[in-house]
Amino acid sequence: MTTYFAKKIFLEEGxxxxxxxxxxxxxxxxxxIEKQKTPSIDDELDIVIPGIINSHSHSFxxxxxxxxxxxxxxxxxxxxxxxxxxxxxxxxxxxxSIYTIAKQAYFEMLMRGYTTVVExxxxxxxxxxxxxxxxxxxxxxEAANESGISLVYTPILYQKGGFxxxxxxxxxxxxxxxxxxxxxxxxxxxxxxxxxxSIAIGVHxxxxxGEEALREIVKFQESEQVPFHIHxxxxxxxxxxxxxxxxxxxxxxxxxxYDVNExxxxxxxxxxxxxxxxxxAQTKSVVCLCPTTEANLGxxxxxxxxxxxxxGFFTIGSDSNISIDPFEELRWLEYSQRLIHQKRxxxxxESIGTGQYLFEKILTGGALSSGQRSNGQIKEGSPAxxxxxxxxxxxxxxxxxxxxxxxxxxxxxxxxxxxxxxxxEWVKFLSQENEEIKKHKESYxxxxxxxxx
Length: 453
Ligand SMILES: [Zn+2]
Known about the structure:
With 453 residues, the chain is of the alpha/beta class. It has helices at residues 79-92, 95-112, 134-147, 179-192, 211-224, 236-246, 250-257, 274-282, 291-296, 304-309, 326-341, 354-370, 404-410, 435-452, and strands at residues 2-11, 14-24, 27-33, 43-50, 52-57, 114-121, 150-157, 198-199, 201-203, 228-232, 264-268, 286-289, 313-316, 386-389, 417-422, 425-426. The model has no long low-confidence stretch (mean pLDDT 94). Bound molecules: zinc ion (ZN). Zinc ion is lined by residues 56, 58, 120, 231, 267, 319.
């Protein structure tokens, strides 16, 4: 048992001061407010907040960051032209490079406050003719182990190149598996996952799987009781194509044909109409918003204000990993709304600041998306996933409990996170100056030099 003394800590009921945190076997055993710290404490911490769940990541795409910002056809550079560049990268990747890129991305996630990552993984083969490769799963788990982050490994079924059974392209063949291969892979991963990692499942999108396959995976997911993830309505073009075939919009069709419930995580849901929004908010499923990626790819803007006013759950993800910073995701989420509505403080309820409101929402939403039983808050019995901030940080100066989260979210700078604890253990690698980080960055740079230039 270790015990820490937090000068300030964010709990379910709000900020508390002078709190002893006792940790046993990776979980929070006891929280008690004391007048003063007892002499036996192991360490004193300034400001403690819950660790953040990254609900949607394709870690391999980290390697593309900054390499796709010069369109060959600038007037018509879209998500679909970006996707071609992403496929060119896929063509060059193998198990070893997937490991190197994932480890770099996971280091960066930890440095910025993500303590868990849901890896939406559909790159299953080393080459287009091989079978689904379990070694890629091991590479991702090794990258998570070596960085320290908790992994929610989420194998994803990908079978078609587009609607109407469009053939897979040469690169997309690296994503393909039969349903049988896919479910065998899921079972293999499930039985080989080490603590504290866990598993979820999903399909890439309605354009990448047929109706029969979708039904089978959802049925399987229901028997497993794990979260189910799917990209949905990210691009207007796919919404239009889907509607021309099915006569319904993608989210509308899902809601009419499936029991979309609290185990479902709908990634993006950017292009939905008022009815879809209203019904979706009632399902208790969670929408995963990835504002920096959605902005970078020119996807569109989610109707956050209407959705939260109807009680809808949401979480965030770094998705393409163009940016790895949960607080930047939250800023983009709120700022895009301000730009549309030409008003301020759009998401918040009046009683608390927008920063705190957004942060609390993603704790609940993140827990739903990753299958955590707790609501993401620091409380007795929950995993000891903690972020420690320093009260010497200039951007937090002068802030009291009323506005502290607004400063954390809206005026944070790169040195915000001082220490990170995952399942009761301090993460060792939190600085670019750390030898392990520096060494890994050299391998990562050499890899990018080889495959991208
Ligand atoms: Zn995605």
